[in-house]
Specification:
Layout lengths: L1 E2 L5 H12 L3 E3 H10 L8 H17 L5 E3 L4 H8 L10 E5 L2 H14 L8 H6 L20 E5 L8 H9 L6
Parallel strand pairs: 1-4, 2-3, 4-5
Length: 174
């Protein structure tokens, strides 16, 4: 599950995992857990990325289907996603929404839950719109795997049932 901050990827990841009957591994939840355990919020990204891929590796090698969710900026995350591809059939579900709506969603979640110490919402909102801001200039993953773009503006387009069918489809047509 990929997409810019505020694109609806965590909400969709949880819904998809529920429908499929598998775990959702969410990068920001791992980071929050580390910060609440005493790790500093700044500089934790490398530790979180390593933990994220360790968890995914254990699950994938055990044959467990999993919904993995993170912003997945191509240059930072593609190298870590290539090894699991040797053990699993990867699919990319990319959430997209207008940057103005994404910004409003980030503002709303920050206002609703100020305990999210590790989340970068404050920095996202403080950064000027335009070049380099993940809300405006997100670069999607470029893996050679099946990919589905989902508009999350108002619900899901395509519908959740179609997203589930895409995620469950095997590379052999099954």
């Amino acid at each position: 599950m990929s997409g810019a901050p505020g694109s609806g990827k965590t909400t969709l990841a949880r819904a998809l995992a529920r429908e499929i009957g598998c775990p959702a591994v969410c990068r920001d939840e791992l980071k929050e857990g580390l910060v609440h355990a005493g790790a500093p919020a700044t500089g934790a990204d490398e530790v979180v990325r390593a933990a994220f891929f360790d968890v995914l590796g254990v699950l994938v090698r055990a044959g467990v289907s999993v919904v993995a969710e993170a912003a997945f900026q191509d240059r930072l995350w593609r190298p870590g996603l290539e090894p699991p591809a040797t053990h699993a059939e990867l699919r990319v579900v990319h959430c997209r929404v207008d940057p103005t709506l994404a910004r409003a969603r980030v503002q709303a979640r920050l206002a609703a839950d100020r305990r999210r110490a590790a989340h970068g919402d404050r920095a996202l909102l403080a950064a000027p719109p335009g070049a380099g801001n993940l809300l405006d200039d997100f670069v999607p993953l470029s893996l050679p795997v099946p990919r589905l773009c989902v508009d999350t503006t108002d619900g899901y387009r395509p519908a959740l049932a179609d997203i589930v069918a895409f995620a469950a489809r095997s590379g052999t047509g099954g």
